[in-house]
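Hi L.,

You mentioned the student needs an example of a multi-chain input paired with its predicted structure. This one should do, with 1064 residues in total across all chains.
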Amino acid sequence: MNCRSEALEVSVEGRQVDEAMLALLHTILLHRSTGKFHYKKEGTYSIGTVGTQDIDCDFIDFSFVRVSSDELDRAIRKAVGEFKDAMGNGMDGMGQISLEFYQKKKSRWPFSDECIPWEVWSIKVNVVNLANEQERQICREKVGEKLGEKVINIVEVINRHEYLPKMPTQSEVDNVFDTSLKDVQPYLYKITFQITDTLGTSVSTTMRRLIKDTLAL
Amino acid sequence: MAAHFDTEYQRLEASYSDSPPGEENLLVHVPDGNKSPWHHIENLDLFFQRVYNLHQKNGFTCMLLGEVFELVQLLFVVGFTVFLANCVDYDILFANKFVNHTDSSKVTLPDAFLPVDVCSASIRDNVTVMFVLMISGVFWLHRLIKFIYNVCCYWEIRSFYTNALKMSMAELPYFTWQEVQARIVEIQKEHQICIHKKELTELDIYHRILRFKNYMVAMVNKSLLPVRFRLPLLGECVFYTRGLKYNFELILFWGPGSLFESEWSLKPQYKRGGNRLELADKLASRILWIGIANLLLCPVVLVWQILYAFFSYTEVIKREPGSLGARCWSLYGRCYLRHFNELDHELMSRLSKGYKASSRYMNCFLSSLLTVVAKNVAFFAGSLLAVLIALTIYDEDVLAVEHVLSSITLLGVCITVCRSFIPDKHLVYCPEQLLRLILAHIHYMPDHWQGNAHRYETRDQFSQLFQYKAVFILEELTSPLVTPFILIFSLRRKSLEIIDFFRNFTVEVVGVGDTCSFAQMDIRQHGHPAWMSEGKTEASIYQQAEDGKTELSLMHFAITNPQWQPPTETTHFISQLKERVQRETTGDRHTLTSLSEPRSLIANFLAGPPSLASLHLGRDGSLTNHGPVGVSDGASALRSLSVSSMRGSCSSTHRSAGHASSASRAMAGSSTDARTASSGSSVWEGQLTSLVLSEYASTEMSIHALYIHELHKQQSGGELSRHTWHRQDSDDSSEGGSGGGNPNPRNLIPRSHTFPISTPGPIPSSNSGPNPDRGTTPGQEVRPLQSNSQRRYGGNTDSVGPGGRVVRSERVPMGGWAEEGHGGRHPDTVPEERSEDDMPPNIHKVT
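Structure written out for the whole complex:
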């Protein structure tokens, strides 16, 4: 709807899933994070610095750059871990993990705050089973190359001058940025995933829509 | 964590906690803040719809009041009915029982009321009444909640108008929608309501407001919806009521489990051709369930409809009995006549302008037998009435005699009804002219009407679009009974076609979402070779819009939204057409002389009597000067010329038809209906230009519509037999799709009734014109003429392809008329990493 959606697709082996996901999610978040804002009295602010660090993958010939914030890393690892558990280990399968950047909008009393997404990255994962070690070696390199391409893709998308939420004033900073981390400040984001069998809208969104529809009759 | 120390990219320790003194001023940012809450709106569809509704309802207060009164009305209808049924002692009212008053002999109304306790007891004892009360209570509560919800939403829209668009609610009625739209387009640059694009276009806004309506129009255009039935006694008839429409929309668009997952996107499985049969089964069973639910709810809805009709129409019938004889545009007519991307108010003003001519046209067909009968009945009824009235005048006690008052009323109604069957002595009718005048406003008409305006078949078909109000009410009343059966027996069989339709005709437009591809108004994809887009269209028959809908819609949209920048081919088409029409208007007399009737008719039409034209021009001179602001010179010249001459010519046709009312008055009337009646204020002055512009636009559109129709008639000559009017439910098309084992897609195109087989039917040749006797001339006479005209146009415009052949084989879409395996070879879009049978929708990147 009123949000950009970008789709990526990768085919990996079972044990590479979490590293591949981490690589992509971290790459996106690297470009969607800023330093902490320090507001001054006159309504101006200065931005703190953000460190980055290189991460080498164990199962893929690939290294990526991420924001050096352990808290952020922990949060993402947790989400990816859940995703991997849901996929089931070592099985063929498809899944989709999506990283959604949103904005909160305060609304009047009877309604709760709305979360309005403005950019959604969905990463489709195909898990393949490989027969022998040689294939694994090839896959290791192949996936590394593919991930490199994806990273370039991401950077290209991000380099386009497209809509980003405007820089907020102090009172509104929580509506745009996730200020809970103490060393970095990404845009508000949400990570969700779907496994192929359950592709389809979740129950809660269906219910919400049903109520809204009946009201809008 | 070893990696942390290996790399040279390290975070500066403690940089986040506090910066060293002196560095504070090095890099200071100023937040731009979200001063306006209007950037990045979540549901733009709803948002634009609400903006439009608020504009149409003339501001917040009017809307609020209207809704409050609706709620009160609802309470009143239910309460009053229950009261009448349970709390009135009718014996007293009919004086069958006497009240024993000591002081006076007068019976008062309160005497007839039962005491409160008796009344409430009788209500409580009556199970059905309690049931009805409960249901209506729930219904009312639902409406109340919805009302409160709406108030909150529209309050937001109100502040959008005042803060972002800078229009106060008080002056909102003086702005036209085009102006509101222009401002929305303008503030998009500043606020970014829609985040996909830097700039919104008019078409985007229309697409969002009319997303589902466009689908409905397209489905009616392609005869997909079962609204036409062949009944044993009545012949062919159209049944399309609000209840039915509601159910269609419920099934397709927003109900639980509908094809759309949100307002703006079709569910992904419906975009793929892979499991269309399964999806069709699913849809069929859903339709079945909704049909059964309708059947179960039918008593409730029926009672409601009857009550509502009773309370809303009895008063009107009593006040002016003739109103039931009056006609209105049927719901089907509104769907059939609607352009793609035409907003409600545009459609309504167009149809209202055509109303007078249409009702005159329908009045042409008074049966002389009925007239004789009616005259005599009126005579007898009139004499009885006269005697009764005379007696009453002499002594009003006559009224007290039983049934005298009621017979006076009945006789009055009877005479009024009879009078409507007696034609006015001083009127002369020319149906052909009238039909042309109607066409100028309604823009669509089946081919075979032209030249057959005097026939009863034409009249009957026109009456499907333009029905009696009484019939309308009757249909609404029977709708709860009929709707479930239509759903269960008729719509269910169409489920596969519906699935195919939504897959084939949905495109994803960036920044808008999934829309009906017809609404893109792309001549290349949906043009019809018989309607000016010969050589430009690549559409297969399945993809062509009927009745020149694509072409006319395109013209209409381009004319109503002059700021709109269409894609290049489309621009080419529009400018070419405009140029042609303009050439006609500037009057190259020497080229026109040799032409056949229709073109010269337009020439006549546009030239008009010079005296009249100049007179009108003189009177409207000031307006014409205001008019062409911001429009290119050529267009403005055309516009002013065509308007003035149109006025003159319209009145001339009227005069020739012997009617008193003049077209210029109709035009002036329409500007009052554009709610500018309150003149004299300064606001009025400011709005003048845009109003005049929109007036010009509608006239220009009329001319273009007439021109396109004439050209179509010329081009298709005697061979046009592909009228949608007689199209049947083409069941064979779906069979061809599902069971077809024939690898050649060309053979799979069914020879259904829709196929243009050359049957020289009762369609007139192009030069028969208003002369009805030549209506049955066979095609021979036409052919040389047709080739002549083709050569002529070919000489003028180089883009008309030789012979105008249309390449079909490649672009035949899957489903419907092509077989399944064909989809893999679809040339357009098969992105990587997709299986062969996953046929994606046509994804258009429209930027």
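You could point out the following to them. The first helix of chain A runs from residue 17 to 31. Chain A touches chain B through 55 residues (CB under 8 Å).

Best wishes,
N.
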